Amino acid sequence: MRYGARAGQNGPGLAKECHVAIRVLLVDDQPLLRTGFRMILEAEQDLAVVGEAGDGLQALDQVRALQPDVVLMDIRMPRMDGVEATRQITGPGRDGPAKVLVLTTFDLDEYVVEALRAGASGFLLKDAPANELVQAIRVVAAGEAMLAPSITRRLLDKYAGHLPSGEEPVPNTLSTLTDREVEVLKLVARGLSNAEIAADLFVSETTVKTHVGHVLTKLGLRDRVQAAVYAYESGLVRPGAQ
């Protein structure tokens, strides 16, 4: 995240810019929604909307030009949808550190799964309360995943038909994990929070966080959302399994 901002970005709100930490790009094909999001975010002292885009192609241009910290990304848009835009923003050779928070109208939109696979750090419903939107941006900007583990599991289970059956061979990459790390990965995919995993394994939350960190590093994953997707896609966890 960068502190300070460019002159004239928010006009009269320039004094606020002096200590802005999180730069946000709004991407949605509905101007009215972008206006609503802008009003909510610009009321916060630590957030600044640095730009807007009406489709995925515009979003890529804006990300390169404005270097936002967080992109609020709609999924269904003309020319280029949010899934492909997310893949290009967060994929190899990306131009900046922008993280993507997907916006969706439906809590079980099938495209959300694809957006998470593409590299999104989480998703949020468009009708979520303003305070949830603000908090989600802060969480994602801090490098965390904005997606309750229980929702991750429900989402993946809903679209189990797009995932492996669980009969496929476990990928070799899992061999880099210790037995305890594999156990933790399974629990993450089942939808347990760090506190719940700690209680289940009779260890401290700090220990769980350490294990989760090792899992992400060894598997080259960004956050626990991608870890949950990986566990399903690899067949380590079967959709619907308890």
TrEMBL record:
GO MF terms, alphabetically ordered: DNA binding
Keywords linked to the UniProt accession: DNA-binding, Phosphoprotein, Transcription, Transcription regulation
Residue ranges constituting the Response regulatory domain according to the UniProt record: 23-141
One example of a Gene Ontology biological process annotation: regulation of DNA-templated transcription
Claim: Phosphoprotein is one of the keywords in the record: yes
Positions of post-translational 4-aspartylphosphate modification: D74
Residues in HTH luxR-type domain copies: 170-235
Protein name, per record: DNA-binding response regulator
Species name: Streptomyces filipinensis
